[in-house]
Amino acid sequence: MSTSENQAPANFIRQIINTDLKNKKNNGKVATRFPPEPNGYLHIGHAKSICLNFGTAIEYNGTCNLRFDDTNPEKESVEYMESIKKDVKWLGFEWNELRHASDYFEQLYQYAVQLIEQGQAYVDSLSAEEIRAYRGTLTEPGKESPDRNRPITENLDLFQRMRAGEFADGQYVLRAKIDMASPNINMRDPAIYRIRRVHHQRTGDAWCIYPMYDYTHCISDAIEGITHSLCTLEFEDHRPLYDWVLDQLQTPYHPQQIEFARLQLEYTIVSKRKLNQLVTEKHVTGWDDPRMPTLAGLRRAGFTPKAIRDFCERIGITKQNSWIEMGVLEYCIREDLNENALRAMAVLQPLRVVFDNYPDDQVEQLEVSNHPQKPELGKRQVPFSKVILIERDDFAEVPPPKYKRLIEGGEVRLRGAYVIKCNSVIKDDAGNIIELRCSIDPDTLGKNPEGRKVKGVIHWVSEQHSKPAEIRLYNRLFKVANPDNEDNFLDAINPGSLEVLSDCRVEASLADAQAENRYQFERTGYFCLDAIDSVGGKLVFNRTVTLRDSFEKD
Ligand code: ATP
Ligand code: MG
C-alpha cells in the first residue's frame, strides 16, 4: 500500500489511483509521463504538471517518462529539448525513460493504415478552409466530405503515396471517420495526418507527413504503457477522441486520461507562444530573463527548486480553473531563502561616512554571523575601517516621523559593529550631501552603550575593502493581474520591471560568490549572483524577491 493515503493531502487524482490500485487495475502499476512539446522553454505552469506527474510516480513507486511531443517540426528545436531536460533535472526529478513521439512515427503510420483498412480513416482532398467550413458549429452538424466514402483500396494507395512524397503540402489529409454530426466537434472526422515538408530535428527528411497531436498522444501513451495520462482541462473535450482511437486500434494498453486545472498565475503569462513573442520582440533579454516565468528565468532570478516544488504542492490539484496570486510563489521563495540564504551586506546607493576619531590606517576584522538563527552556518570576517559606505536613505536631513536611522547629531548602530554618531554633513556646491563626518563609540562593539538606547541598525561596507557591483532590481513583468485579458498583452508590460543600480558596493567576501549563490542582503532583499553576466571579475546580482510583501507595512 502506498503511503499517500495517510500522508499526502487528498486530491481527486490520488483518489482515482487509490481506487485503481484497490481494483488491481493495470496490475497495480502506476506509470505517468510529462509530455512537453519542444517549442519553447518550460514555464511555471509546466512545473505544476512536472511535480504532478513525477510526484505521482514517486509516491506510488511507479515510473514517469519524459516524452517530447515532437510532431510540429517547424516550431521545435534541439535547443528547446536540451533546456527542457535541464529544467526537469533542476527541479529535482529523474525520468524513467526519455522518449519522443517521433520514436513512434513508423508505428503511428502502421496504426493509421490499420484504421484505413478497418474503414475508419480516409484520405480527403478538401482544403483546410473547406474542412473548416464543412465542420459545422456548436449548434449545427457538420457536412460530410465528398471523399468520405472513398474505397479502402484507394485510401491505402493515396496514404502510401502521401508518405512517398507524391503530393504537395496540404493537397491531402488523412481523417478519422467518426461522426460529422457529433455534438463534440473534435469527433467530426478530425485530421490525423497532414503533408508537411519540413526537416525534423530527429528524423531529418525521412517523413513528409506528420501525425496530429490528438492521434499521436493517445497512441504514444499506449505504447509506453502509461496508466494515468494526466493533462490539463482544455483536453477534456478531446478525451472521447483519445478513447476512440485506442478502442478502434485495440492497443495492448488503454491509458486513462485525467484532466486537471492549468496553473494561471497573476501578473504573468504562461503560454509558450506569448513568451516566445516577448523573447523574439526583445521585450526581455531572453528565455532566461529573470522577469520571465520560465524555469530558466526563475533559476537565474535566484528561485530554488525546493521553493517551486513547495509552491506546486501548496496550490494543489483541482478541476476548477482559478487564478493564483503571485504572493503565493513569493511566499514560498521567501520561506526557503529566509531559512537557507547566507546573510551579507551590500550598499545599493552609497553615501560616504568618515570617522574622525578612528586611526587612518587601522583595519579591524569583525566577526559577523552568516545567519542569525543558524549558528551552524558560521561567521565571516567583515573589515571595518575609517571610511565606510552606508545606504543614502539611511541618513535623513529632515527625518520623517518615527525615523530610527541616522540624522545629524543622532546615533545609529552599524550591523555587527559600533554605534556611531553623525557630527556634521558635508555638501558640494550644488547642495548635495557627499559625506558624513561621524565618530564611533569604541565601547559599543558587541554591547549596548551606557545610559542610552540606540534603536536603529543599518548596514554598511568598508569603502576600501568593498567591491563594486551592479545590482538589478526586478519587479513584476506586467502591471495588471491578468495581462491576457488586455487587447494586446504587450501593452500591459510594466515599464518599471527592471531597475539597474550600477554603483553598488558589496562586502569583500562576495568577491568569491559563485553563479546562483543566494544571499539575503541585510535589509534590502534576497539576491543571487547572475550566472550569465558576472564575468571577468564583474559582479552582478539579481534581486529574487524583496524581504517582505510590499503591501505589508515596513
Ligand atoms: P503552452 O501553451 O505554454 O505551449 P502547452 O500545454 O501547449 O502550453 P505543452 O508543452 O504541450 O505545453 O505542455 C506539456 C504538459 O504541461 C502538458 O501536459 C500540459 O497540459 C502541461 N501544462 C502546460 N501548461 C500548463 C499550466 N499552465 N498548468 C499546468 N500544466 C500545464
Ligand atoms: Mg501544446
Tell me about this structure.
This protein folds into three domains: 265 residues, Rossmann fold (3-Layer(aba) Sandwich); 164 residues, Ribosomal Protein L25, Chain P (Beta Barrel), CATH 2.40.240.10; 114 residues, Ribosomal Protein L25, Chain P (Beta Barrel). 25% of the residues lie in helices and 23% in strands. The protein contains 13 helices and 27 strands. The protein has a seven-stranded mixed sheet, with helices on one face. Helix 4 links the parallel strand 2 and strand 3. The N terminus is likely disordered.
What structural keywords apply?
Rossmann fold, 3 domains, seven-stranded mixed β-sheet, 27 strands, 25% helix, disordered N terminus, binds adenosine-5'-triphosphate, binds magnesium ion
Percent of residues in helices comes to 25-40%
Q: In DSSP terms, counting alpha (H) and pi (I) runs of 4 or more, how many helices? A: 13
Taking pLDDT < 50 over at least 5 consecutive residues as the criterion, the unreliable ranges are 1-6
Counting helices, strands and paired strands, the structural category is: alpha/beta
The number of domains is 3
Spatial order of the strands forming the largest sheet? 12-25-26-27-23-24-13
Q: From the 3D structure, determine the CATH topology of the largest domain.
A: Rossmann fold
Q: What is the highest CATH level, the class of the largest domain?
A: Alpha Beta
Q: Could you name the CATH homologous superfamily of the largest domain?
A: HUPs
Round the Cα radius of gyration to an integer and report it. Answer: 31 Å
Silhouette = elongated
First and last CA, distance: 50 Å
